[in-house]
Amino acid sequence: MAAHRKPRSRTTAAGAGRTARTAWTIALAGAATATGFDGTGHAEPQLTPAQVKAKVDKLYQEAEVATEKYNGAREKSEAAGRRIRALQDEAARKTQKLNAAREALGSMAAAQYRDGGVDPAFQLALSSDPDRYLDGAEFAERAGNRQAASVAEVRRQLREIEQLRGAARVELKSLTSRQAELRRHKKTITGKLDEARAHLARLTGGERALDDRADRSASAARTVLAAPGSAAAQAPNARAAAAVSYAYTKLGSPYVWGATGPNAFDCSGLTQAAYRAAGVSLPRTTYSQIGAGRRVSRSELLPGDLVFFYSGISHVGLYIGNGQMIHAPNPSAPVRVAPLDEMPFAGATRVA
């Protein structure tokens, strides 16, 4: 008797096929929705000109934070370089003096040799490793008074030179570290500025021109409000007046990060150059400049005072009266007059 087998269900197989096809259709539809049926994703929402400007301003402010860090690292790097050169110069002078002392010992040794032998004290002049030779206890015991004094002087000079070389090695390590820091900050700055330029490139020519005209009109109006003569006359002293006068002569100069003049500036570079022209030496960075004088409140401001902005003290300008300052804003704008309210006020310092 043949075994009874349950016939295979055609409906089940067909249903499975339909389920698979349905799943594939849904997946395909989802993919089509995500790509817009043309293989591309949804475009980033179009920003308004005001939103682009706000985003660019934020990027410029972040770039300026990195710029001030770059300026500080460069200042320390240059100082380390100066110290290395000074140490090398001093080591060279002492080496010359040491060589003269060794030559004198060599002459004395030659004279003694002619007289019948070389005293151990003078073997120093012939040694290829004088420092090691000097460490021998036997040498110290056998040297005469005069010879011991000469050798002690050579030993002292050798130790001084080694100390100088050690200090130079420390400074070189510091310099290498500062140079690496410079490279990091430079990469950050250029990245922020490139991103800002990319955002600006999205604006149409008309939108950029309109924004530029508004900036120029506002700047011109503010310049009229604060004339150079009146600002200098209100300054607390001649040095502050001279700094204000210098800043006025630099209106229109381009912003270049790391620049200190005379033809381009970043923010702290402009204030440093203004006071340098007045005979006052300011530190390089905003973080240092805020501590370079007497702190004053906003209500006490006089022309020539340094005014600082943002919680991180990353921007500085030169106050000129009437609630205005001259500053180097960012790469999108030259040195110009602007109101203090343009940025969040953080403090002020009277330098002179």
Walk me through this protein's architecture.
This protein is α+β, with helices and mostly antiparallel strands and 352 residues long. The chain is built from ten helices and six strands; from the N terminus they run H-H-H-H-H-H-H-H-H-H-E-E-E-E-E-E. It has helices at 10-35, 49-114, 130-134, 137-142, 145-201, 205-225, 228-234, 238-249, 267-277, 286-289; strands spanning 294-296, 306-309, 315-321, 324-327, 336-339, 345-350. The protein has a six-stranded antiparallel beta sheet with strand order 1-6-2-3-4-5. Helix 2 (49-114) packs antiparallel against helix 5, helix 7 (228-234) packs antiparallel against helix 8 and helix 8 (238-249) packs across helix 9. It is elongated, with a radius of gyration of 37 Å. Mean pLDDT is 77; it is low at 1-42 and 220-225.
